[in-house]
Input
Amino acid sequence: MKKFAYFPGCSLEKIALSYNTSSVETAKILGVELQELEDWNCCGATTYFHVDQLLAYTLVARNLAIAEKEGLDLVAPCSACYKNAYFTNKYIKEEPDLAEHINYALEEDDLQFNGNIDVHHIMDIFVNEVGMDEIKEKVTKPLEGLRVAPYYGCQIVRPRKNGEEIENPQFFEELVSAMGADPADFPERLRCCSASLIMTSRRAALDMVRVILQNAVDSEADVIATACPLCQVNLECYQPQVNDEFGTDYKMPVIYFTQLLGLALGMSKKKLGIGKELVSAAPIFGEF
Amino acid sequence: MTQTRLLIIDDDPDYVDGIKSILEKADYEVDVAYNPKDGFKALETGKYDLLLLDIMMGRGAEGVMVARKINKDPVLRETPVLIITGVREQIAFLFPGQPVHPRFLPTDELLEKPVDPNLLLEKVEALLKEAKAKKAE
Amino acid sequence: MAAKPTFSQEISNLLYASKGNPLKTCIQCGTCSGTCPVAEFMDQTPRRLIGMINANLKEDVLACNTYWFCASCYHCTARCPSKIDIAEVMYAVKRYSIWHKTYSEDLVGPTFSETFVRTIVNSGRSFEPVLAPTYMFSMGIKEVLQEAYMGTQMMLKGRMPVLPTKIKRLDNFKEMIRRIIPVGGGK
Output
């Protein structure tokens, strides 16, 4: 069994608990062990970068160092955690002075980081490590007739990591197809969910959420699939506020892609944390 | 006798104007670098007798990184370093009321902004004198 | 030796690995503003902000909400034909405004960031309920009630943290931070 150091991140402790369990459980069925990183700390979201980027890199490096000590690559299910870990890893590898300085700080926790591991988003594990063929083979309950809007959001694609396609990525659509569902043509799939603006600039954020929800409705999606806890919370939990602000009537379920994948793999709804939604997904999942 | 040459590495142009003119009036020759990268390069030329170093620059507390790099270099470490910082004020929200860390580079002198001109000159003079004495040994 | 930097150079000096002044390569094409999903809520669009930085309109730049309304979606960065990392420029201006306390008082962003980072350096993990007061104060009574209702719903579904969590090796963690930012405590 292929093994990774799994960095759940703060949101997955509670708010996105169902993303946590569905990630670990679906991975297991697909032959991937996600071993939770020992004593991990917060990745800093975007806020450290507003204060001190060296601090941001150091705190992320602590997580990288713990993974390296285990001899495992790091996997993050949250897009923001992933972006921070990916670029911290890259910058430390590129800049010896930065690596030296950060390692000086890591000494306080008896750690060091030598830049010997890679960082992945969990989507990458399913798409590239497991692969579509393997997934198709293991699907026992194809999600036939379910129209899924694949919402990429930002940081799994941007900023560009390694020369990959970022204006028109297709891996999420392919994954949805592999589950036997129908990927909706969803033009706003790469548009920002408003991230922390939901807390700091509410009016702007609700409008950003509205645009995405409307686009999902226009593309006749039954459900939006996400790959990030912040995207999920913004698109789902703030629907009543959006409806109140704009006089709309959205009731669009927003589900983690790992939950859909788990259903297609024949897992129980309970095991996947389905039922914790504020916008009920029951109407669409009745038949699966 | 050649003039004593000082280097300031500080990203705040208005603050630099102030201390530069104080130091120049006291007959020092003063050069300035406004970011840590250029600053370290200038210092490596080896023509400076003392460095005045800010902490919060560039991506964050890069002054600490520069000071540590100097300390590790057997030649550069001979140059006395006077830290002049407003770090406590700049990130007071993180560590309210707490002092600059006592373990931070114990060999260096540290002044907090705003610096009294007389105290600045006094510290600079004392550090230069100390360095000269060390050299003569 | 180096001439006194302009405001544009000051911002460049804050950027990661900046060589020269990347902002100067801006051709004012407006791709960033056309791409930015928050542009219509900003006092100045991203294109104008860069233009204003390059024109050294320091006070006007610092007074506008643009950089605190950046959601870090990196769409502008991905598309800039001059390859300016615009999201990174926004971070740089945010740092400038935090370090110099020049941000406008009615913005939520700076206090939110400060509280968030303070929570992390004290516990190692984030805790959402601590953050709520930083943005609730800016809301009307209706929004506060909506927020409270949502919080209750989340709690009923087992999605709301009740107690803050801490990492185990918190003392080491705090000492680690002091090696990067040399303020406070110490053994």
Notes: The mean pLDDT of chain C is 91. Chain C touches chain A through 64 residues (CB under 8 Å).
